[in-house]
Inverse folding.
């Protein structure tokens, strides 16, 4: 999806450091040479177009609660069905198909480790598929707010 | 309200500290859906949580300082923008080298996420994970070749797991119940 210059500049400037003040969108507008209303409209449109998942905080998972990357090997013809079941499980926030015997990869979150374990046990039992459970041992780079390379995009 | 001077202690009913603790929990829950797109988003959150606008802003600032919020800003869906090739590259690195290599690879411009996870033998021998978000499969494979050359990884067992579909992608739900 091609974005106009103002949208691109907004993304470049505000993947982090969104102001914490009474009228943050007005402050953004001033810096971007737009009006507050334009900023709000553009953000809503970008959310609607699925360019932005949201405006807001990204929580540090190790402080926010428990989370874990898991994978299952679903029979090829049942992938959509299994994926839908995974999506319905409480706490699941990412779920991707990947090219591997373990072909469905998802992240599950919970308020604490015990709840997480219970949720995974329950899901594993429902799916009747062996599950890889891969908690993070050490993060070297765990923030997806990288600079967008607009020139390289289609 | 007149409280009886004697008898059971009802003071917990009016404990402002625990009231705001409840408000803060609701604020966390609200924030997992993102900041409202209203002219005064912190005021909107205040109305939804029973806190004041100032309390909401203080809480957000404090959570940023404490590191609970690691980033406050626009959360991009890279796939929509045209990052169509997302590869999870996994490596089997000797335990004594994994931290050093992880840090080195994390510094590479093409690596967008990098972390260590446990092996699960015999099915899963890999302990280091790198994400490469790229525009095309070809470009990602080129970037990977560069990574292998730069960090001398040609003898390291690895696998490339391209993702061909996102079934779900949203922020973590640590507090909210869905």
């Amino acid at each position: 999806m091609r974005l106009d210059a103002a949208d691109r500049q907004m993304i470049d400037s505000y993947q982090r450091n969104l102001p914490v003040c009474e009228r943050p969108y007005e402050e953004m507008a001033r810096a971007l040479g737009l009006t507050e209303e334009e900023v709000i409209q553009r953000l809503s449109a970008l959310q609607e177009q699925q360019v932005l998942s949201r405006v807001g905080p990204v929580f540090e998972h190790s402080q926010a609660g428990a989370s874990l990357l898991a994978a299952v090997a679903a029979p090829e013809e049942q992938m959509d069905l299994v994926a839908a079941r995974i999506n319905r499980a409480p706490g699941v926030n990412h779920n991707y198909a990947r090219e591997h015997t373990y072909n469905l990869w998802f992240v599950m979150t919970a308020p604490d480790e015990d709840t997480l374990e219970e949720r995974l046990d329950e899901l594993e039992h429902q799916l009747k598929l062996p599950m890889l459970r891969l908690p993070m041992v050490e993060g070297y780079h765990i923030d997806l707010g990288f600079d967008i390379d607009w020139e390289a995009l289609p | 309200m007149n409280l009886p001077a004697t008898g059971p202690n009802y003071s917990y009913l009016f404990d402002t500290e625990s009231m705001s603790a409840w408000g803060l929990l609701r604020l966390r829950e609200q924030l997992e859906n993102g900041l409202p797109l209203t002219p005064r988003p912190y005021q909107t959150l205040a109305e939804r949580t029973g806190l004041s606008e100032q309390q909401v802003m203080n809480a957000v600032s404090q959570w940023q300082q404490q590191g609970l919020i690691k980033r406050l800003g626009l959360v991009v869906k890279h796939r929509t923008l045209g990052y169509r090739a997302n590869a999870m590259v996994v490596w089997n690195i000797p335990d004594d080298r994994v931290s050093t290599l992880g840090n080195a690879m994390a510094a590479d411009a093409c690596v967008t996420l990098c972390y260590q996870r446990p092996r699960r033998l015999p099915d899963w021998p890999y302990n280091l994970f790198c994400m490469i978000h790229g525009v095309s499969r070809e470009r990602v494979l080129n970037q990977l070749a560069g990574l292998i050359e730069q960090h001398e990884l040609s003898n390291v067992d690895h696998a490339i797991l391209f993702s061909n579909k996102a079934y779900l992608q949203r922020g973590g739900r640590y507090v909210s119940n869905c």
Q: What stands out?
A: The longest helix of chain A spans residues 113-127. The mean pLDDT of chain A is 94. Chain A has two domains: 5-48, 61-134.
